Amino acid sequence: MVALSPGEEALAFRIADVEVTPGVELAGIYESNALLRSEDDPRGTPEDYIGRISPFLRLAYARGATDFALGYRNELLFYKDFPERDVRGSNHELTLSAVRPLGERTTLTLADLLQAGETITDITEIGFTDVEALTFLPARREFVRNGATLEISHDLTRTINALASLEYDYAHYDAFTREDGEREPQSDEHHVRGFVTGSYAWHRRNSVTASFGVTYHDYDRRGEAWVYTFAVGDRWQVTEALQLDGSVGFEYLSQELGTTGETSDSTNPYGALNATYELAEDLTFLANFFYGTQASSGIGTSVETLSVRLSAIYQATEKLRLDGFGFYSDGESVDQGDEGVADLSVESFQAGAGIHYQLLSWAAPRVEYTYIDQDADESVGASYKDHRVIVGITLTLPEDFP
């Protein structure tokens, strides 16, 4: 499901202390490889045109330092040549976020994302939003996914902060029959991640961090894994224009593969770097690097991933924004197959660009292009190339409403 929130310029009306923002996104999509098939697939790689209607509603409440927001989005997809793939309102997304201070030094933050439906198409947005994305796409099947995050931040002193976070992700995929006739069973996955991070601002432009985390992955019949992460980092405002945020460390991975109970243990390096450079007031460059252990998305178990993203955002005028990105990822996983344990590898390259224009206070058209080239082991069955073009418009309330 593609979840595109209305832009910051979206207009709203108030009901008591609640700000209400309704709207709808209308889009036409071109897919050069609508079924995401490999180029050497004897059945071909058919293209298609897709229409999308996506109504949304956002409720926001703010009083003092307390912020609360609730959002809902639905999605309808209409395929020109593959009407059997149509989605008629069965894709749903519910978002929740809340921030509340607990005294002068402590802040509580809560976020939740619930998705349910028949198909997942959020690969459109990966390059723009998520440097850690693996581009593993579960096949078309009914699903429920929920991700919840709870954070507590406490300032011990003016320069020392402690942050504790707890994340829980659940994914359910119904059984389905693949194009080759093989039956995939139902799958239920659980992922829990807890982290504690301490930071010390020893200079007004620099702070150092240390963190420890424990992650548990339950992949249903595919196995389970424990990941222990130790990292130290630095946040440095190098100049007014350049900001760096990085961390290095190591991870210990212990996993049990499939129903055989065979175990695999390894110690791996961990690293992350985010750089932001404002070349001018209206031009920003971003660079993101990540190397670490992640959960897979239906293929293999835990994945050692290297990801790099370069992107740029140009605010050409008050109403016109241009952006572009390049994204590379290389993931190595371990899977329990019929012939025993097998290493799986997926390499992906993505690139794209977008034009966003605030035509009116209540109308924001956009044009986006994304290219994906994914190369996977033959056993994975996820090698494909795809060109995707989206032409759409987001409509909210007229300025004179009501």
Describe this structure in words.
This protein is mostly beta strands and 402 residues long. The chain has 1 helix and 21 strands. It has one helix spanning 126-129; strands spanning 13-15, 18-31, 48-63, 66-79, 87-101, 106-117, 143-155, 160-173, 176-177, 183-184, 187-203, 206-218, 223-237, 242-257, 262-280, 283-294, 303-315, 320-337, 340-357, 363-376, 384-395. The strands form 2 sheets. It has an 18-stranded antiparallel barrel. A two-stranded antiparallel sheet has the order 9-10. The longest helix is centred in the first third of the chain and has 4 residues, at 126-129. The protein is globular, with a radius of gyration of 22 Å. Residues 1-9 and 122-138 have low confidence and may be disordered.
Instruction: Tell the overall outline.
Output: globular
Output the number of helix runs: 1
Task: Round the mean pLDDT to the nearest integer and report it.
Answer: 84
Structural class: mainly beta
Helix content: under 10%
How many DSSP-defined strands?
Answer: 21
SSE string: EEEEEEHEEEEEEEEEEEEEEE
- Describe the sheet with the most strands: 18 strands, antiparallel, barrel
